[in-house]
Amino acid sequence: MSDWLDEIVGESGFGIDNLPYGVFSTASTGERAARRIGVALGAHVLDVAGALDDPGFATHSLNEFLAQGRSAWTATRNRLQDLLSSARGDGLRDHLHAVDSVTLHLPFEVADYVDFYASLDHATNLGRMFRPDSEPLTPNWRHLPIGYHGRAGTVVVSGTDIARPAGLRVLPGETAPTYGPSRKLDVEVEVGFVVGVPSALGVPVPADAFADHVFGAVLVNDWSARDIQAFEYVPLGPFLGKSFATSVSPWVVPLEALAAARVPPPPQDPEPSAYLRGGERWGIDVALELALNGEVLSRPPFGSMYWTAEQQLAHLTANGASLRTGDLFASGTVSGPSRDERGSLIELSWNGTEPIHTASGERTFLEDGDLVVISGHARTAGGRVALGSVAGRVVPGHPG
Predict the structure, then answer these.
(1) pTM to 2 decimals?
(2) 394: closest CA among 180, 231, 225, 250?
(3) Is 122 labeled as catalytic in the residue annotation?
(4) Which of 161, 175, 281, 321 has the fewest CB atoms within 10 Å, counting from its CB?
């Protein structure tokens, strides 16, 4: 790496081996026409259209680029890396913007959103919590990646305020539900994957085709109203307790940047069905942090996820459901075996029965004004590949 680039990148994890893509604008209005595709370099954004002299990147969304497929992704990445490696920075500095001087937008137009339930520790914790006299895992859990279809229209970029949702919930000491604001608003630390290349309706996508369809990864906070969810989820699963908001980080980290962080995932017993096997497994060593009002509460380990991303992709298309450019599928809550590795407040507080000790006092679920930040980086032999962060502040909901 050249001296000028080394000075810009430093220890940020946003270097030439990363080059995550996002969408930014320099105009204070943030109009769509002013938006452009950029890549993160240290604390800067490189305007890709200007750096490559390619007006195709002067656009409001990554979707058109995502749809071009793996050869185009690799070719663009190679062009950027060659340019950054060989240049002294003279011509590129004009296309660099300090990240705190721009507005970062939702990087892709979300087509569909699916959320999984792939952490053995998370599923076990919730099973012990709500079914203490039964096996913690449901009979199907080790046979397939359980998931639900979420609401694409409420996926928002990091920094968007989250209005406290309302719905039917049963208050403590009561037996009948009443409508009102959630009292158990929670977070879920997750990693999501962004689809670039679509697939045909009726044709399943095999696990070994994962890298041909998926462009890269983002951090996800799947906000959850646990009390609303608890009353509504039987028999069809999550609905209003999840659909009000899902936050994603502004940078999509290419799979090519994460390949160096791949690790063997945990063994699976029993052996999954044939459609969930095949190809290389995508266990990825991502170190995550969950912070509440600036205080780190936990560090969930993504590398220990039981069901991995290529299996999730194979499962969500196993019935012939088609992929679309901009599809987002998320891992579900990432949790590890120890308390300080739990990726949700319902686990950290054991559904409110074991308050969390913080610098500002004991806590259980989210309060208005709370700022939640999830950050993460992939660990490679050569250092770290940053995924950035996804942040959201809880604000009062609509009074009606």
Answers:
(1) 0.96
(2) 225
(3) yes
(4) 175
